Amino acid sequence: MFKKKVWLLFIVFFVCAGLVREIDSVNAAGAGSLKLGVNDKLTNINAVSIKDTYFVPLRDLSLETNLVLTLHADGINVKGNNGSIRLMNDRSTATLLNGKKISLVTFLENGRTMVPVKMTTHLGFSISYKPAESLLRVHNSGAKLSDTAFVTQHKKALQANATTGTTGKKGKAVYLSFDDGPSATTSQLLDILAKYNAKATFFMLGPNMNEHASQVKRLVNEGHAPGLHGMTHVKDKFYASPTSALKEMNNDNAILKKITGQSTTLIRTPYGSKPYLTKPFRDKLLTQGYHLWDWNVDSEDWRYKNDSNSIYNTVMREVHSLKKSAPVILMHDQKATLKVLPRILETLKKEGYEFHIITSDMTPNNFWKDHR
Ligand SMILES: [Zn+2]
Hints:
- By secondary structure, the chain is an alpha/beta fold.
- The protein has 2 domains: 2-164, 2-Layer Sandwich (Copper Amine Oxidase, Chain A, domain 1), CATH 3.30.457; 172-355, TIM Barrel (Alpha-Beta Barrel).
- It has 12 helices and 20 strands.
- A hairpin with a 2-residue loop joins β1 and β2.
- α9 packs parallel to α10.
- It is globular.
- The site of zinc ion (ZN) has 5 residues, from loops.
Protein backbone atom coordinates (compact mmCIF):
# COMPACT_ATOMS: atom_id res chain seq x y z
CA MET A 1 0.00 0.00 0.00
CA PHE A 2 2.67 2.39 1.10
CA LYS A 3 4.84 1.40 -1.80
CA LYS A 4 2.03 2.05 -4.25
CA LYS A 5 1.47 5.55 -2.93
CA VAL A 6 5.12 6.38 -3.32
CA TRP A 7 5.12 5.27 -6.92
CA LEU A 8 2.07 7.35 -7.56
CA LEU A 9 3.79 10.33 -6.01
CA PHE A 10 6.63 9.68 -8.42
CA ILE A 11 4.24 9.65 -11.36
CA VAL A 12 2.42 12.73 -10.13
CA PHE A 13 5.73 14.50 -9.80
CA PHE A 14 6.66 13.89 -13.41
CA VAL A 15 3.24 14.68 -14.72
CA CYS A 16 3.33 17.97 -12.87
CA ALA A 17 6.93 18.87 -13.57
CA GLY A 18 6.04 20.12 -17.01
CA LEU A 19 3.17 22.18 -15.72
CA VAL A 20 4.85 23.95 -12.87
CA ARG A 21 4.51 27.63 -13.19
CA GLU A 22 7.15 29.73 -11.58
CA ILE A 23 5.39 32.09 -9.27
CA ASP A 24 7.78 34.94 -8.70
CA SER A 25 5.11 37.28 -7.54
CA VAL A 26 4.60 35.48 -4.24
CA ASN A 27 6.55 38.00 -2.27
CA ALA A 28 6.60 40.82 -4.76
CA ALA A 29 5.67 44.30 -3.69
CA GLY A 30 2.08 44.51 -2.64
CA ALA A 31 1.79 40.86 -1.73
CA GLY A 32 1.49 40.11 1.93
CA SER A 33 1.41 37.20 4.26
CA LEU A 34 -0.57 36.37 7.37
CA LYS A 35 -0.19 33.68 9.98
CA LEU A 36 -3.08 31.26 9.61
CA GLY A 37 -5.43 30.66 12.52
CA VAL A 38 -6.92 27.17 12.82
CA ASN A 39 -9.84 27.06 15.24
CA ASP A 40 -8.47 28.60 18.49
CA LYS A 41 -4.79 28.26 17.60
CA LEU A 42 -2.63 30.75 15.74
CA THR A 43 -0.34 28.46 13.73
CA ASN A 44 3.09 29.12 12.26
CA ILE A 45 1.73 28.65 8.76
CA ASN A 46 2.39 31.63 6.52
CA ALA A 47 -0.51 32.30 4.20
CA VAL A 48 0.82 34.24 1.23
CA SER A 49 -1.42 36.50 -0.79
CA ILE A 50 -1.35 36.30 -4.57
CA LYS A 51 -3.91 38.26 -6.51
CA ASP A 52 -6.27 38.45 -3.54
CA THR A 53 -6.06 34.74 -2.77
CA TYR A 54 -4.25 33.37 0.25
CA PHE A 55 -2.18 30.21 -0.31
CA VAL A 56 -0.68 27.86 2.28
CA PRO A 57 1.52 24.73 2.05
CA LEU A 58 -0.80 21.73 1.78
CA ARG A 59 1.30 19.58 4.07
CA ASP A 60 1.37 22.14 6.90
CA LEU A 61 -2.34 22.77 6.51
CA SER A 62 -3.14 19.07 6.69
CA LEU A 63 -1.07 18.64 9.85
CA GLU A 64 -2.92 21.48 11.57
CA THR A 65 -6.40 20.51 10.41
CA ASN A 66 -6.02 16.70 10.47
CA LEU A 67 -6.54 16.23 6.75
CA VAL A 68 -5.66 12.90 5.20
CA LEU A 69 -3.76 13.10 1.90
CA THR A 70 -3.76 10.23 -0.57
CA LEU A 71 -2.03 10.25 -3.90
CA HIS A 72 -3.83 9.02 -6.97
CA ALA A 73 -2.89 8.86 -10.63
CA ASP A 74 -5.06 11.91 -11.42
CA GLY A 75 -4.31 14.03 -8.38
CA ILE A 76 -4.10 14.35 -4.60
CA ASN A 77 -7.14 13.42 -2.57
CA VAL A 78 -7.67 15.57 0.52
CA LYS A 79 -10.05 14.22 3.12
CA GLY A 80 -11.26 16.06 6.19
CA ASN A 81 -13.77 15.11 8.87
CA ASN A 82 -16.47 16.85 6.89
CA GLY A 83 -15.87 16.30 3.23
CA SER A 84 -13.16 15.64 0.71
CA ILE A 85 -11.81 17.12 -2.49
CA ARG A 86 -9.38 15.94 -5.14
CA LEU A 87 -6.77 18.41 -6.38
CA MET A 88 -6.18 17.48 -9.99
CA ASN A 89 -2.78 17.21 -11.64
CA ASP A 90 -3.58 20.07 -14.01
CA ARG A 91 -3.11 22.36 -10.98
CA SER A 92 -6.10 24.45 -11.97
CA THR A 93 -9.11 22.27 -11.15
CA ALA A 94 -10.44 20.11 -8.35
CA THR A 95 -13.14 17.48 -8.20
CA LEU A 96 -15.71 17.49 -5.42
CA LEU A 97 -17.17 14.40 -3.79
CA ASN A 98 -20.28 14.61 -6.03
CA GLY A 99 -18.06 14.54 -9.14
CA LYS A 100 -18.44 18.24 -9.86
CA LYS A 101 -15.36 19.97 -11.26
CA ILE A 102 -14.45 23.38 -9.87
CA SER A 103 -11.62 25.74 -10.70
CA LEU A 104 -8.92 25.67 -8.03
CA VAL A 105 -5.34 26.72 -8.65
CA THR A 106 -2.42 25.06 -6.86
CA PHE A 107 1.30 25.48 -7.48
CA LEU A 108 4.69 24.26 -6.33
CA GLU A 109 7.00 26.47 -4.35
CA ASN A 110 10.33 25.12 -3.08
CA GLY A 111 8.99 21.65 -3.69
CA ARG A 112 5.83 22.19 -1.65
CA THR A 113 2.31 22.07 -2.98
CA MET A 114 0.61 25.38 -2.22
CA VAL A 115 -3.19 25.43 -2.00
CA PRO A 116 -5.69 28.25 -1.55
CA VAL A 117 -7.05 28.60 1.99
CA LYS A 118 -10.56 28.70 0.52
CA MET A 119 -10.16 25.00 -0.34
CA THR A 120 -11.01 24.28 3.31
CA THR A 121 -14.61 25.40 2.76
CA HIS A 122 -15.10 22.11 0.89
CA LEU A 123 -13.90 20.24 3.97
CA GLY A 124 -16.38 21.65 6.46
CA PHE A 125 -14.46 24.77 7.50
CA SER A 126 -15.56 28.39 7.52
CA ILE A 127 -13.12 31.24 6.91
CA SER A 128 -12.86 34.51 8.79
CA TYR A 129 -10.81 37.27 7.17
CA LYS A 130 -10.35 40.65 8.78
CA PRO A 131 -7.36 42.35 7.20
CA ALA A 132 -7.49 45.31 9.58
CA GLU A 133 -6.82 42.94 12.45
CA SER A 134 -4.48 40.65 10.47
CA LEU A 135 -6.97 37.86 11.03
CA LEU A 136 -7.16 34.92 8.65
CA ARG A 137 -8.70 31.94 10.35
CA VAL A 138 -10.30 28.66 9.34
CA HIS A 139 -12.66 27.14 11.85
CA ASN A 140 -15.19 24.39 12.32
CA SER A 141 -17.12 23.02 15.27
CA GLY A 142 -13.79 22.52 17.05
CA ALA A 143 -13.45 26.28 17.63
CA LYS A 144 -14.45 27.70 21.00
CA LEU A 145 -13.41 31.32 20.53
CA SER A 146 -15.36 33.90 18.57
CA ASP A 147 -13.31 35.91 16.06
CA THR A 148 -13.21 38.84 18.50
CA ALA A 149 -12.03 36.59 21.33
CA PHE A 150 -9.45 35.03 18.98
CA VAL A 151 -8.08 38.44 18.05
CA THR A 152 -7.92 39.44 21.74
CA GLN A 153 -6.19 36.22 22.72
CA HIS A 154 -3.56 36.43 19.97
CA LYS A 155 -3.27 40.21 19.91
CA LYS A 156 0.51 40.44 20.26
CA ALA A 157 1.29 37.79 17.66
CA LEU A 158 -1.21 39.26 15.20
CA GLN A 159 0.27 42.74 15.58
CA ALA A 160 3.77 41.37 14.95
CA ASN A 161 2.27 39.61 11.98
CA ALA A 162 1.01 42.90 10.60
CA THR A 163 4.42 44.57 10.81
CA THR A 164 6.57 41.75 9.47
CA GLY A 165 4.10 40.04 7.20
CA THR A 166 3.83 42.70 4.56
CA THR A 167 7.40 43.81 4.06
CA GLY A 168 7.40 42.27 0.63
CA LYS A 169 10.83 40.70 1.22
CA LYS A 170 11.48 37.59 -0.79
CA GLY A 171 12.07 34.59 1.44
CA LYS A 172 14.76 32.22 0.22
CA ALA A 173 14.71 28.73 1.67
CA VAL A 174 17.62 27.18 3.51
CA TYR A 175 17.52 23.67 4.94
CA LEU A 176 19.44 23.15 8.17
CA SER A 177 20.16 19.55 9.05
CA PHE A 178 21.64 18.06 12.20
CA ASP A 179 23.09 14.54 12.20
CA ASP A 180 23.96 11.94 14.84
CA GLY A 181 21.55 13.15 17.55
CA PRO A 182 19.64 13.47 19.65
CA SER A 183 22.18 14.23 22.34
CA ALA A 184 22.50 15.71 25.80
CA THR A 185 22.56 19.17 24.23
CA THR A 186 19.59 18.87 21.84
CA SER A 187 17.39 20.96 24.14
CA GLN A 188 19.85 23.87 23.92
CA LEU A 189 19.96 23.46 20.16
CA LEU A 190 16.15 23.60 20.01
CA ASP A 191 16.13 26.73 22.20
CA ILE A 192 18.43 28.48 19.71
CA LEU A 193 16.32 27.41 16.72
CA ALA A 194 13.16 28.62 18.46
CA LYS A 195 14.72 32.00 19.11
CA TYR A 196 15.27 32.48 15.37
CA ASN A 197 12.00 30.85 14.37
CA ALA A 198 14.12 28.37 12.43
CA LYS A 199 13.00 24.87 11.52
CA ALA A 200 15.47 22.07 10.87
CA THR A 201 15.71 18.41 9.92
CA PHE A 202 17.31 15.94 12.33
CA PHE A 203 18.84 12.73 10.95
CA MET A 204 18.90 10.66 14.10
CA LEU A 205 20.41 7.38 15.27
CA GLY A 206 18.08 4.81 16.81
CA PRO A 207 20.03 4.21 20.04
CA ASN A 208 20.28 7.97 20.64
CA MET A 209 16.53 8.37 20.15
CA ASN A 210 15.95 5.72 22.78
CA GLU A 211 18.31 7.50 25.14
CA HIS A 212 16.82 10.98 24.59
CA ALA A 213 13.21 10.17 23.74
CA SER A 214 11.87 13.39 25.26
CA GLN A 215 14.01 15.44 22.87
CA VAL A 216 12.64 13.53 19.89
CA LYS A 217 9.12 14.34 21.04
CA ARG A 218 9.99 17.96 21.62
CA LEU A 219 11.58 18.53 18.24
CA VAL A 220 8.64 16.97 16.44
CA ASN A 221 6.18 19.02 18.51
CA GLU A 222 8.04 22.19 17.63
CA GLY A 223 7.70 21.59 13.91
CA HIS A 224 11.13 20.17 13.09
CA ALA A 225 11.39 17.16 10.81
CA PRO A 226 12.71 13.82 12.00
CA GLY A 227 14.90 11.84 9.61
CA LEU A 228 16.77 8.54 9.84
CA HIS A 229 20.52 7.98 10.12
CA GLY A 230 20.53 4.26 10.96
CA MET A 231 21.46 2.34 14.09
CA THR A 232 25.20 1.66 14.28
CA HIS A 233 26.96 4.44 12.33
CA VAL A 234 29.64 1.83 11.69
CA LYS A 235 30.69 1.73 8.06
CA ASP A 236 31.36 -2.01 7.86
CA LYS A 237 28.05 -2.84 9.52
CA PHE A 238 25.74 -0.34 7.82
CA TYR A 239 27.14 -0.91 4.34
CA ALA A 240 27.70 -4.67 4.78
CA SER A 241 24.87 -5.33 2.29
CA PRO A 242 21.79 -3.61 0.88
CA THR A 243 19.74 -5.65 3.32
CA SER A 244 21.75 -4.50 6.33
CA ALA A 245 21.35 -0.86 5.29
CA LEU A 246 17.61 -1.24 4.88
CA LYS A 247 17.35 -3.07 8.17
CA GLU A 248 19.11 -0.27 10.02
CA MET A 249 16.78 2.36 8.57
CA ASN A 250 13.67 0.28 9.29
CA ASN A 251 14.77 -0.32 12.89
CA ASP A 252 15.52 3.38 13.27
CA ASN A 253 12.06 4.20 11.89
CA ALA A 254 10.38 1.76 14.29
CA ILE A 255 12.00 3.57 17.22
CA LEU A 256 10.85 6.94 15.88
CA LYS A 257 7.33 5.56 15.51
CA LYS A 258 7.35 4.12 19.03
CA ILE A 259 8.38 7.49 20.49
CA THR A 260 6.35 9.93 18.37
CA GLY A 261 3.63 7.85 16.75
CA GLN A 262 4.87 8.87 13.31
CA SER A 263 7.41 7.49 10.89
CA THR A 264 9.38 9.20 8.13
CA THR A 265 10.68 8.54 4.62
CA LEU A 266 13.68 10.89 4.93
CA ILE A 267 17.06 9.18 5.23
CA ARG A 268 20.70 10.20 5.29
CA THR A 269 23.24 7.39 5.38
CA PRO A 270 26.34 7.52 7.63
CA TYR A 271 29.24 9.56 6.12
CA GLY A 272 26.97 10.55 3.23
CA SER A 273 25.84 8.36 0.38
CA LYS A 274 29.03 8.52 -1.70
CA PRO A 275 30.92 6.28 -2.34
CA TYR A 276 29.33 3.43 -0.39
CA LEU A 277 25.66 3.66 -1.30
CA THR A 278 25.93 2.15 -4.77
CA LYS A 279 22.94 1.34 -6.94
CA PRO A 280 22.02 -2.02 -5.36
CA PHE A 281 21.86 -0.26 -1.98
CA ARG A 282 19.81 2.61 -3.32
CA ASP A 283 17.44 0.29 -5.13
CA LYS A 284 16.85 -1.59 -1.91
CA LEU A 285 16.17 1.55 0.15
CA LEU A 286 14.41 3.81 -2.32
CA THR A 287 11.99 1.23 -3.68
CA GLN A 288 10.76 0.95 -0.09
CA GLY A 289 9.71 4.58 -0.30
CA TYR A 290 12.70 6.20 1.40
CA HIS A 291 14.07 9.49 0.08
CA LEU A 292 17.84 9.93 0.19
CA TRP A 293 19.26 13.28 1.32
CA ASP A 294 22.89 14.37 1.40
CA TRP A 295 23.94 18.05 1.58
CA ASN A 296 25.48 20.78 -0.55
CA VAL A 297 27.00 22.78 2.31
CA ASP A 298 29.31 20.96 4.74
CA SER A 299 29.89 23.03 7.90
CA GLU A 300 32.77 20.72 8.87
CA ASP A 301 31.65 21.26 12.44
CA TRP A 302 33.02 17.80 13.29
CA ARG A 303 36.51 18.89 12.22
CA TYR A 304 36.68 22.42 13.64
CA LYS A 305 35.27 21.53 17.02
CA ASN A 306 36.97 24.44 18.84
CA ASP A 307 37.11 26.85 15.97
CA SER A 308 33.78 28.64 15.53
CA ASN A 309 35.26 31.04 12.99
CA SER A 310 36.23 28.27 10.61
CA ILE A 311 32.79 26.68 10.83
CA TYR A 312 31.08 30.02 10.25
CA ASN A 313 33.33 30.95 7.32
CA THR A 314 32.97 27.54 5.71
CA VAL A 315 29.18 27.69 5.84
CA MET A 316 28.97 31.22 4.47
CA ARG A 317 31.48 30.60 1.69
CA GLU A 318 29.66 27.47 0.55
CA VAL A 319 26.19 29.02 0.79
CA HIS A 320 27.32 31.97 -1.31
CA SER A 321 28.92 29.73 -3.92
CA LEU A 322 25.68 27.87 -4.66
CA LYS A 323 24.24 29.00 -7.95
CA LYS A 324 20.78 27.54 -8.25
CA SER A 325 19.90 25.04 -5.57
CA ALA A 326 18.76 25.93 -2.09
CA PRO A 327 21.38 25.33 0.60
CA VAL A 328 21.12 22.05 2.50
CA ILE A 329 23.54 22.54 5.38
CA LEU A 330 25.14 19.60 7.18
CA MET A 331 25.77 20.16 10.87
CA HIS A 332 25.88 17.87 13.87
CA ASP A 333 23.77 17.68 16.99
CA GLN A 334 26.75 18.30 19.27
CA LYS A 335 27.96 20.80 21.83
CA ALA A 336 30.54 22.51 19.59
CA THR A 337 27.87 23.47 17.07
CA LEU A 338 25.80 25.34 19.67
CA LYS A 339 28.44 28.04 19.97
CA VAL A 340 28.49 29.05 16.31
CA LEU A 341 24.86 28.38 15.40
CA PRO A 342 23.38 31.75 16.50
CA ARG A 343 25.91 33.59 14.36
CA ILE A 344 25.09 31.48 11.32
CA LEU A 345 21.34 31.95 11.80
CA GLU A 346 21.76 35.67 12.37
CA THR A 347 23.65 36.19 9.10
CA LEU A 348 21.44 33.94 6.98
CA LYS A 349 18.36 35.68 8.35
CA LYS A 350 19.81 39.07 7.46
CA GLU A 351 20.47 37.79 3.96
CA GLY A 352 16.77 37.01 3.60
CA TYR A 353 16.82 33.26 4.18
CA GLU A 354 14.00 31.36 5.84
CA PHE A 355 14.73 28.09 7.59
CA HIS A 356 12.51 25.26 6.40
CA ILE A 357 12.25 21.54 7.06
CA ILE A 358 12.88 18.95 4.38
CA THR A 359 9.63 17.25 3.42
CA SER A 360 8.87 13.97 1.70
CA ASP A 361 7.34 15.73 -1.31
CA MET A 362 10.56 17.57 -2.17
CA THR A 363 12.97 16.33 -4.84
CA PRO A 364 15.79 14.71 -2.86
CA ASN A 365 19.18 16.38 -3.07
CA ASN A 366 21.89 13.70 -2.95
CA PHE A 367 25.34 13.04 -4.37
CA TRP A 368 24.07 10.42 -6.86
CA LYS A 369 21.35 12.71 -8.25
CA ASP A 370 18.98 9.84 -7.52
CA HIS A 371 15.66 11.68 -7.43
CA ARG A 372 13.47 8.83 -6.27
ZN1 LIG B 1 26.63 10.81 10.99
